[in-house]
Specification:
- The structure is a homodimer.
- Chain A has helices at residues 10-18, 34-48, 55-62, 76-86, 100-117, 133-145, 153-184, 188-204, 209-212, 223-242; one strand at residues 2-4.
- By secondary structure, chain A is mainly alpha-helical.
- Chain A folds into two domains: 10-86, Arc Repressor Mutant, subunit A (Orthogonal Bundle); 100-185 and 221-242, no CATH class.
- In chain A, helix 2 (34-48) crosses helix 3, helix 2 packs across helix 4 (76-86) and helix 5 (100-117) packs parallel to helix 7.
- The longest helix of chain A is centred in the C-terminal third of the chain and has 32 residues, at 153-184.
- The structure holds a DNA duplex.
Chain lengths: 251, 251
DNA sequence: TCTTCTTGCGTACACTATACGCATCACTCT
DNA sequence: AGAGTGATGCGTATAGTGTACGCAAGAAGA
């Protein structure tokens, strides 16, 4: 699976993000809308993955010509940015408790759930995130939950984005494995078994004693278990930097 | 930037990874070799990024016909897998100290350095990692450094891959921003300034008081500072699970 | 020498994004 | 009502992608 880039024309994308009003009421009304295009793209991505999202496919899904899409979206990169902001959800989030640990924990779980629902999401490049209204709203809500820590704003942002980065990375691995399984028809188990013979030979060579001694079930950890482990590590590691108090738990 | 997938024909790739011998000495000797193809691909990726790595481009770089590459590599996905194992370096790594914290710290720094040297690397999908000889060698070395912890093998692997996942995620963001800057000619600063007007308007709306109150320099953290923060958090968070002792440091 | 096997590669096909230009139609102004 | 304006939908064309197929050339074994 190959990475997909966002961020084309910044001004144009921002305008579409913050001002989705239907434009001037001159000329033909138009049966196609920006919202319809973005929604169709998300449907395709949810159903068949990010690499199935092509302009032809979206247009076909909507029953219009391919180039008609370009009347509402500057290009594919901008479309991806719009998809990102769209899936963040419409409604105002329920406020976070004023408790940095509970806030970051809930935020981590929400992001994880979101990335698991839209499995293409962690594969969209976010190195230049366009700040849409929903993204800003969500960030504002998280900041509201972090007001109980004496840490600097810089540390708050660092903590916030570290949770995001880790969860996105884990979701990439998890979703990638699932999608590869569905697409190739080769299950993850079969995939590792296919590597078996070579690995067995390597193990028997005696060059990798510690790897050879590993129990097989070591790699059987479920995504949810991995996520819980990781989230716990993050919160415990952030504690000395945000809480000023001792570590709360261990697992 | 769009995500690139590895993992095509597993058996074929594994054979190429572990047995790069030149094949039977029948027929024409052949001036092209697997190693040359992989090296050329890495050169292109280092110079112009992952999306510049096309079969035509690699062939052109080697002065051969495009389809000649397919005599040595089953396809592009397999080529990416081979590139991955190749950049892990040839030589045996210097052994890790028997100290889980020092080991994971050094491992994290090495992975970070590697991902920063080959900036395309964190964009290659690793959800189905092919275990090449160099990858196995590296993992064996890390396991050797983790023998001082009473934690289970499962927890060792979890800790190990958590460092990998986080560093890869951070490198994706960092490298992605740099590459976008070089490719588009729009600097990161200009990019954020382009978002300025819209964001200022949003801030002045009063709907985002906490975001509006953020100091500007909050987003000026350098990649290295972010990495150091993250690595410290990880090690501190892993301590109660691996060390059985109290937290060592805070920053 | 003749057969066999391998390499190199030209051509073709099915995809991708998107630049350009034209016909169509609705609304606004005269 | 009629003319003018401007946006919409979209057909065509271009430049790129990965790769299946088949053929010519040449070296080693029989």
């Amino acid at each position: 699976m190959t990475e997909t880039s966002g961020s084309g024309d910044v001004h144009r994308s921002l305008a579409l993000l913050w001002d989705p009003t239907g434009g001037p009421a001159r000329g033909q009304p138009g049966r196609l809308s920006l919202e319809a295009v973005v929604d169709a793209a998300i449907s395709v991505a949810d159903a068949d993955g990010l690499e199935a999202v092509s302009m032809r496919r979206i247009a076909g899904e909507l029953g219009v010509g391919t180039m008609s899409l370009y009347r509402h979206v500057p290009g594919k990169e901008e479309l991806l940015d719009l998809m990102l902001d769209r899936v963040l959800g419409d409604d105002d989030p329920t406020p976070f408790p004023v408790d940095w640990r509970a806030t970051l924990e809930r935020y981590g779980r929400e992001v994880w759930a979101l990335y698991r629902t839209h499995r293409w999401l962690p594969f969209v490049d976010q190195s230049r995130p366009l700040l849409g209204p929903r993204a800003v709203t969500g960030m504002e809500a998280v900041l509201g939950g972090l007001t109980d820590t004496p840490a600097s704003d810089t540390h708050k942002i660092l903590a916030f984005s570290m949770v995001e980065t880790y969860v996105a990375g884990l979701a990439r691995v998890t979703n990638g494995a699932e999608l590869a399984e569905e697409r190739s028809g080769v299950s993850t188990e079969e995939f590792w078994q296919a590597q078996g013979p070579v690995l067995v030979a390597a193990m028997q060579s005696g060059r990798f004693p510690r790897m050879a001694a590993l129990d097989e079930e070591v790699f059987a950890t479920t995504p949810e278990e991995t996520f819980e482990f990781g989230l716990g590590v993050l919160l415990d590691g952030l504690a000395p930097r945000l809480g000023g108090t001792a570590v709360d738990s261990a697992g």
